[in-house]
Amino acid sequence: MDLLALKDFVLVAQHGGIGAASRASGRSKATLSRHLAGLEDDLGVRLVERGANTLRLTDEGRALHARSRELLLEFAELREAIQGRRDDPHGQLRISAPLLFCHMHMAMLAAQFRARHPGVVLDVQADDRQVDLVDEGFDVVIRVNPPDTHGLVGRCFMEDWLTLVATPAIAARAAGEVPAVILSSQKTQGHWTVQSNAGGRQIAGSVVLKLPSYVLVRTAVLEGAGAAALPHSLVDGDLRRGKLLNMGTVEGSATQIWVLHTARRLTSPKVRAFVDFVSNRFRTPE
Fold this sequence. Notes:
- The chain is an alpha+beta fold.
- The protein has three domains: 3-82, Winged helix-like DNA-binding domain superfamily/Winged helix DNA-binding domain (Arc Repressor Mutant, subunit A); 91-151 and 259-282, D-Maltodextrin-Binding Protein, domain 2; 162-253, D-Maltodextrin-Binding Protein, domain 2 (3-Layer(aba) Sandwich).
- 41% of the residues lie in helices and 29% in strands.
- The strands form three sheets. Strands 8-10-9-12-7-11 form a six-stranded mixed beta sheet, with helices on both faces.
């Protein structure tokens, strides 16, 4: 199999057509078309269905694209290792992380990592969905309580939990029913079960406000709108300054935050450097 033809096939597949791939790479459409046809002849299967203005991968084309991206990455990393650049992180590092983590930590992490590794350009996307690293071209993802790490490896670098918090005035009403602020995505509930130094108890809540993010919920709680269960890391400073009171840890809310990447045999220097940096920065004991 011609490696250059395989690279051009991946280029065409990524950009959805020969014209778009040519514009993005500077390679001629004739060369890309010739390499694509040659690869099909070599394999004896049709890899794309060609329309007047569009190009669609066949089942065989999708299978080859899924496997060849990883193969080409390994070839590139092997070349770097042979050339003695394995310990020199460089190039673009694409990262997907949850919106709240980005708001709280990513700007600081990115700036500090960039200062340590100036050869790496970080491209961070804030997204709460489960992105596909290979299909969408990400090098690293940050995930909260990942349900399945099949095909991925990495480290748990941070642990968190939900703490029920409120202003002192709202917390003083905990013996009765308190106004509750919750996420828009949450189901309305009648109470929280919390654990504190005094033991376990239930605190009744009546929903008065639904907001789309923890950042907005925290702001509303600080303004006295009601009580809310928020990530402890988000309200730790408010608790220490006395702006909010800790009403207890929400039962069953333990959270692990992982940094993950594909389980390739050769891990690129930039990925390895970022995983090590994040893990050391938070220093969660194993």
